[in-house]
Fold these 3 entries.
Entry 1:
Amino acid sequence: MNRDDPEGAIAAAARSCSNWGRWGEDDRLGTLNHLTPDKRRQGAALVRRGDSFSLSLPFDMNGPQKGWRRRTNPVHTMLDTGTDAAAGLQDFPHGIGGADDVITMPLQCCTQWDGLGHIFDHGRAWNGRDAATTVTSQGDLVTGIEHMAAHVAGRAVLLDVGRVVGGGELPDGFAITEAHLVTTAETHGVAVGRGDVVLVRTGQLARAKRDGWGDYAGGPAPGLSFTTAEWLHRSEIAAIATDTWGFEVRPNEFAEAFQPLHQVVIPHIGLLVGEMWDLEALAEDCARDGVHEFWLSAAPLPITGAVGSPVNPIAVK
């Protein structure tokens, strides 16, 4: 990999890893096509104890966002309260009262999925579509994340690279290679293959929760190396999520680049990418019982035309 030529490396990886046309010209699901009913049955059979783990951060003003690209933390506002009810301001009969609320937030400010309309390569969106006519001011007119809402449930595996390779946490700037992923899977005794949802724990979120957000949102971070594009394509996984802000290693591995792995995996592979997932409690449980595969339900909100979605992933063991 020529670290001075991100343009060339991205172009080569895009050619090598392209899934354009694989599932037809009208495809809206990308690699979620790998997550079949048989794969869901396999995932459901993994439930042994019935213990569940939420993999989401709290959606509140104490989140990691600092305003980059107008991304703010969620703002939660009450519309009706118990105070209103007690004061008789709600004008309901026979003593009934209630509370209502509203939340205002960017769809990618916290635990979330990147949809297929989120990233383009030289003006091309997933499956080779023209980005200008695919995602407009009206939203993603073709691959809006609502099309994925019924599909993201099945077998998932946790690759705790932070624990296996880093002794707990990987340092910022650590590039996770295919060798690291394979070694971690072998250490856990778990296979990774077609239709799986892969969760990669780096430990960075544990550090941020302990020491403060700092530059978590957009700053240096451990993450996947650009060189993992071939593995992500070849393994035929359905989706991948990490405990970091941006999925791939930061600073990126080229002299001048911005999220080059995104530029390959989303518009060319059609891969569903999750970020800012809280894997800590799940990782502790996996370390205790030695089982790193489980049932996962992680449906995006069916927000028409959205290019990303908040999610509360639930892992069940």
Entry 2:
Amino acid sequence: MDLRLTGKRALVTGAGRGIGKAVALRLAEEGAQVALLARSRDQLEATAAQLPGPSLVVPADTTDDAAVRTAVDVVVGAWGGVDVLVNAAARPASSAPVPALADLGDDALRAEVETKVLGYLRCARAVAPHMTAQGWGRIVNVSGLNARATGNLVGTVRNVAVAAMTANLAEELGPHGVNVTTVHPGATVTERTSADVAAAPAGNRIGRLVTAGEVADVVVFLCSPRSVAVTGDAVAAGGGTRGVAVY
């Protein structure tokens, strides 16, 4: 299937590693021009060296609104616009023990909201005028399956907030040709995952962990013109949650 992404101008945040990097690679393989955003220039340049097509390296911290706007201005100045935004600049869910309520400080949640929720909002706010002016765009927010589970208060709250933001943006931007969706990965194999963990059986429906590249396949479809029927909703990409029916 031709995803019709050849020549599309994409901005991927969190592109230095993990799911963000995998998405950047898949988009480039589909013919998109990819601008790479993260805090580490070295990581971005390493990603750029692996892309088969045109790319831009735009280091920025998504907790800084001025830095985000400057980065988007650089992309627009170089390429004339932005067609696709993938928000993936967030820390992965921690494997550390979850603190009890009495030990959970405000900053634990504040830091996650600042990076994942407000960071995603800043990027969407900066690119949306360019997308609506041209009458077409795609925004995909990488969130997480903690949105559908208890046991990690901070993880649940941040990911539910991303899904709620996505639905609201989709409603506002949809009449202008811009689709906005959420992708909820579960535990995912990335370059930081040990070989033992990657090879271990998983408690999902496919019996193994999903890889970053497999999550990226879902994200990249949602970035394409062929995904027009999907907007405002959250798509799970974690190998299927056992014992749950989502409707």
Entry 3:
Amino acid sequence: MRGWPEKISDDELEVVRNAGVVLLQRDLPDSFNIQVAKDVKKVGVPVILDVGGMDTPIPNELLDSIDILSPNETELSRLTGMPTETFEQISQAVAKCHNLGVKQVIVKLGSKGSALFIEG
């Protein structure tokens, strides 16, 4: 987590502003991800957050700035504090993510594929 700039330059952000979609990962500092997500959201670039990486709570400021949250089953359990052994349990844990303001969740299910959950 060391060596990342505190603030990303406008020239550097211009690259991601022109992207079709931005994938952020928790291997990067939350402050970096927040800055990128907020900036590209202003210009309509969809943002996906891969939950893998840091095992810390995701700041609300980051959750508010993404379009899709993408955890695997274990990460979803860790994030919500709920079991994710069955599809029903996964659905309930995703509902908790929706309550946190995340509209779309793609849960990676390993050899079983993945599942997209859209709020509503």
